[in-house]
Amino acid sequence: MLKKAPWGAFSDIKPGISEVEMATILLPAIIKGWNFDDEDGKPLEISKENIRRLPMEVVLYLLEQTVANSSLKKKTSGESVTSSKESQSE
């Protein structure tokens, strides 16, 4: 489940920050809930620290979902969204 990132989530983003660090800052502000548990079966808090503990494939999936969710909202609101490949072929 996703939500819009609050403006304050962007305050930790500094010039020169890596994309990985940007993801660890923004994902906890965007994700409403998840079903990840710790070793004892207790739900993991949605935090930068726990984002860093996730396998890279999972973090990439979460990032893809945020982009897909954003694109879907644009398409359903009547805005046109095209990929860079589509733009180049026109």
Secondary structure elements and their pairing?
Blueprint: H1 19-30, H2 48-53, H3 56-76, H4 84-89
Essential attributes:
disordered C terminus, 50% helix, 90 residues, mainly alpha
Task: Explain what you see.
- This protein has 90 residues and is mostly helical.
- It has one domain.
- The protein is built from 4 helices and no strands.
- The longest helix has 21 residues, at 56-76.
- The relative contact order is 0.12.
- Mean pLDDT is 73; it is low at 76-90.
The helix count comes to 4
Instruction: Tell me the number of structural domains.
Output: 1
Report the average pLDDT across residues.
73
What share of the residues does DSSP label as strand, in percent? under 5%
Structural class given helices, strands, pairing? mainly alpha
For the largest beta-sheet, the strand count, sense and barrel status come to: none
Could you say which overall geometry the principal axes of the C-alpha atoms support?
A: globular
Q: State Rg.
A: 15 Å
Helix fraction bin: 40-55%
Uncertain regions: pLDDT < 50 for 5+ in a row?
A: 76-90
The end-to-end span amounts to 35 Å
Total strands: the figure is 0
Order of helices and strands: HHHH
Short précis:
The protein is mainly α and 90 residues long. It has helices at residues 19-30, 48-53, 56-76, 84-89. The model is unreliable at 76-90 (pLDDT under 50).
